[in-house]
Task: structure prediction
Amino acid sequence: MWRTDGVAWTRVVSGGFGDANNLVVSALAAFGGQLYAAAGNLATGIEMWRSATGNASSWSQVNADGFGAGPTWENAVLDVYSNHLYTGFSRQVSGKGRAELWRTANGTTWTPVFTDGLGNSNNADVASLAAFRGQLYVGLRNPSTGGEVWRAGDGLSFSPVFTGGLGNAANRGAYGLIEFEDQLYAVFSNVGAGAEVWRTSDGAAWSRIGQGGWGDNDNRFADYFDKGAAIFEDRLYIGTLNDAAGGQIWLLLSRPAYLPIIRREDAQR
Result:
């Protein structure tokens, strides 16, 4: 892990926090005055580390490997909702992934919210998290019937917002969820036709505003595991994974552009 003042970069974590099986720092989140890092470990499972300063040699692990339940896949997502830090990931169960969500109020005591893919064994990953209009939204990857999004006001009891990839099973994963200008955006992977973007103002009615990987179906993945979207100067940016031409960044032009007009009274002057 590296950090910067905007110009110079300094390494603050090396060697996988001392464990070579920690292959990737897959998520970061600030919570309770500390910075949390999820380390992906295929051998023993997700590790959660934190630091109050971010400095080198200041990091400590705050969970049991894999939350005490064995190997997980390497990707994790982190988000804060209602005074809790949440992490979602995929557990290896009988050779396939199973979505799990855990949370903590103090950063060290973690409890499971669900470990069964929300009752569907094909819900393989928790791929995204977002707070929107007083509820916690969870995006799931489902390679069988299409990505799903669920929500819970209490952060515990989830109900489906949609299933089946919003009518397209090829929208396998709801890999991105982000709020922008009072709307919630969902970013889907679509390996065949290219990534899609949908949005809602209430969580019930969704409209598609992008499809076909922005005209390049090699943009199969976008906002991959909730890490490729950001709001900067009141604009929404989304990054893609494109293994043919290289990754791309797209900007949402959410405000209409107006051309100057000549009014009748102006023409008469």
Remarks:
- Residues 33 and 180 are 25 Å apart (CA to CA).
- The chain has one domain: 2-267.
